[in-house]
Amino acid sequence: MQVRKVSSNMAFGRSLRKNEIDEYTKTLKEAKKITGQTGKSAFIIPLTSLPVSETKDIGIGHLASKEGLDFIDYMHTYLDFNIVKDLPSGQIKKYNDFFCSYEASALALGDQNINPQLLTEDKYNSLLTQNEFQEIVKANTKSDKKEFINCENTMESGSTQDNILKKAHKKFKKLDDSTPLKQKYIKFIKDNEFWLNFPRKEEPDQEFFKFKQFLAEEHLAEGKKLLNDRGIKLCGDCPINFTTDEVNAFPKAFKKGYNTGLPSWGIPTLDYDTILDESSDAYKLFKTKVQLMARRYDVIRFDVGWNYITPIMTPHGENKVFEHNKKELENALVDNIDKWVKEVKGEDFDLKNLIYEVEAGPEEFSPFKVNTKELISPLKNRVKSYSTVYMNNTWGSNDTFRNYYKWSGDTFSIGPGNHDHQPLKQIAKGIPDYAANNQIHKTDSIEPLSKILKIPTKDLEDPTTYSKAKFAEIMSAENIHYFFMDALGKEERYNEHKPNSNTNFRRRVSSDYKTIYQNSLHEGFGFNIMDALEKVFKAKGYDKSNPNLYAKIIKFRDILIEKESETIKTINDVDDDIVKLPKPEKINTHNSKTSKILWFGTTITAIAGGIYGIIKTSDNKKNNNKILK
User: Which DSSP string corresponds to 378-422?
Assistant: First the structure.
């Protein structure tokens, strides 16, 4: 037996062993096929929130990085998603202490897409030295950097990253035009003249701006390819917003004196009176916005997507939405979106990869024909995005959408929530939602959850049982999505709905994410997909028709909530076969020989050079036979 140094930290969740992963993956795919979760499975995480090692932490994460991809690989093993969804990736202007992704530029990519470490590599002609990159790392001195991204160090004009990139730009300008990097840049400038060349107040140095846009495009594309190589698509979020610079550059594209939607949004509105005219500035600008998204991403989610069906143009000075300010475009504009995307992606592009956010208040938008349950024409065959936050007996569940409204499973995606919603853990605890008039979302959802999953209502009062049930409910939907904070069992809000907060839209995944995730599964709030599948199998009778698969689901459900020390983890990471466990007696319904069958005694001897653990098998199994559900 190999013996390793004992860690003083305890991880309460049990990781999969290397020799278990293949069986786990096969079990998961087979079970999802039976429950009906066969379409899109989107893991929502702002790419800036991806984890970073301490030696490379400039303040934000990147998809085109080892650490970012390691996290994606790790979570993909457990959850088997096929899409990673980012928030809007445009340049973000600071408002007080608030960096909001949904107030970003609609055309230009933000500096957060640039990974300065890549510029130290040969393929970027070593535009930065390792020491120059480390200057950005050293400038990230915030005391809370483990929990929050550092926008000031990376996204602002005059930031340390910005100043270091200026050094890279000086070196870049000296490169011969025949170098491959310079050739790529020249082509990029030519292909993007329409939106690159107008003046920007926040970017007075136009050549430096273009250089950064080139790098952002290259690095985003590199990250996308690395995802695609793993069989995962990248989804971009197309914001409804335009910045002041963009409005000033294309003044005729906007309806002067009007805002989009609710007056409180303060969003300039495209001129929807002329947007269907191919010669109009509104048509040309919106087409450019859509086609940039199509070029950059595999899947597109349209923020406030309902506004392209029934746009609202609210005159300045009005404080509510009036019917006379709505313009019924029906299928016209969304049909154009289909056409524009296919011009970029090709005629064989699956339009089901265009997803429309259509959750809105009744005064803003209704997806139904008047006084009916029938969808309006533009939404019938398009993918609509919904959450289960507002679930009740006639709304907000896969069961309701499929059986009550008769929607086809490939025309909607459903999840426990996203960046905007109250976290699932808060909902499970019955905490009022201060961003929704202190509504307690749990109240109306207990009865439908009970009916769908055949779980007694009294059991659903328990926060962990409720949380697990919310994850389980979506597993019969064809297309699903879930936010990284919910999947990791976090209770904090990502969007705090407090513009002056210096933590709003900043939460990130720390480098010890494995321990965090495994502990969240043991606690009962993290997304244990095997637990979710077990509940669906039991409720639908699949446990009877597929008993062997059901037994494997239970086996892995319980493995993921086992309690284990770091010492045992370390040993098993070295060699899966080091510790040979005897076949256990049958314990409840769990027949896994790796489940809670052994109690490992640890004799710890303090020695001046280190602490070593000697692991042995104990005969006492009594306290380790509890199965948490």
Answer: HHHTSEEEEESTT-BTTBSSHHIIIIIS---GGGEEEES--SSSP
Yes or no: say if 624 and 597 are a contact pair by the CB < 8 Å rule: yes
The whole-model pTM stands at: 0.89
With the CA atoms of 190, 195, 201 and 205 taken in that order, what torsion angle do they form, in degrees rounded to the nearest 10? -10
Tokens of 26: 């096969």
From CA 247, how far away is CA 200, in angstroms rounded? 11
CB atoms within 10 A of CB 226: 18
Cα distance between residue 288 and residue 461, in whole Å: 49
Look at the chain and count its residues: 629
Token representation of residue 409: 């499973």
Residue 307 and residue 261 in contact, taking contact as beta carbons nearer than 8 Å? yes
pLDDT of residue 564: 63
Report the Cα–Cα distance between both ends of the chain, in Å, rounded. 33
Residue 287 vs residues 194, 214, 277, 278, 337: alpha-carbon distances, Å: 12, 21, 12, 10, 8
Give residues with Cβ within 8 angstroms of 41, minimum separation 6: 79, 80, 81, 82, 83, 479, 480, 481
Q: Are 213 and 189 in contact (CB under 8 A)?
A: no
Q: How far apart are CA 547 and CA 35, in angstroms?
A: 14
Q: Position of tokens 């406030």?
A: 304
d(CA 83, CA 231): 9
Q: For position 95, what pLDDT does the model report?
A: 72
DSSP string, 212-281: HHHHHHHHHHHHHHHHHTTT-EEEEEE-S---HHHHHHSGGGEEEEEEESSGGG-EEEE-TTTTT-TTSH
For residue 607, which amino acid is it?
I
| Rounded Cα distance, 293 and 237, in Å | 8
Q: What are 128-166's pLDDT values in tens digits?
A: 999 999 999 999 999 999 999 999 999 999 999 999 999
What is the helix (H) or strand (E) element at residue 164, kind and residue range?
helix 160-173
Report in angstroms the alpha-carbon separations of 584 from 206, 560, 616.
69, 18, 16
Residue 401's pLDDT is what?
A: 97
Paired tokens of 190 = 């030519």
Q: How far, in whole angstroms, is CA 592 from its chain's centroid?
A: 33
Q: Label residue 577 left, alpha or beta by phi (over 0 means left) and psi (-120 to 50 means alpha).
A: alpha
Q: If you count DSSP H runs as helices and E runs as strands, how many of each does the chain have, helices first?
A: 23, 15
- Beta strand pairing status for 83-85 and 299-302? unpaired
CB count in 10 Å sphere of residue 617: 14
Confidence at residue 332, expressed as pLDDT on a 0 to 100 scale:
98
- Can you read off the two tokens belonging to residue 619? 């005969």
Q: Are 357 and 411 contacting, i.e. CB atoms less than 8 angstroms apart?
A: no
Q: What is the pLDDT of residue 98?
A: 78
> CB of 327 within 8 A of CB of 273?
yes
The residues of the chain scoring below 50 in pLDDT are 1-9, 566-629
Helices assigned H by DSSP within 541-620: 542-545, 547-559, 566-574
| Beta carbons of 90 and 141 less than 8 angstroms apart | no
Taking the C-alpha atoms of residue 291 and residue 346, their distance in angstroms, rounded to an integer, is 12
45, amino acid identity? I
Angle between helix axes 21-35 and 547-559 (nearest 10 degrees) is 120
Name the one residue in this structure whose structure tokens are 């109240």. Answer: 443
* Torsion angle, alpha carbons of 304, 307, 313, 318, to 10: -50
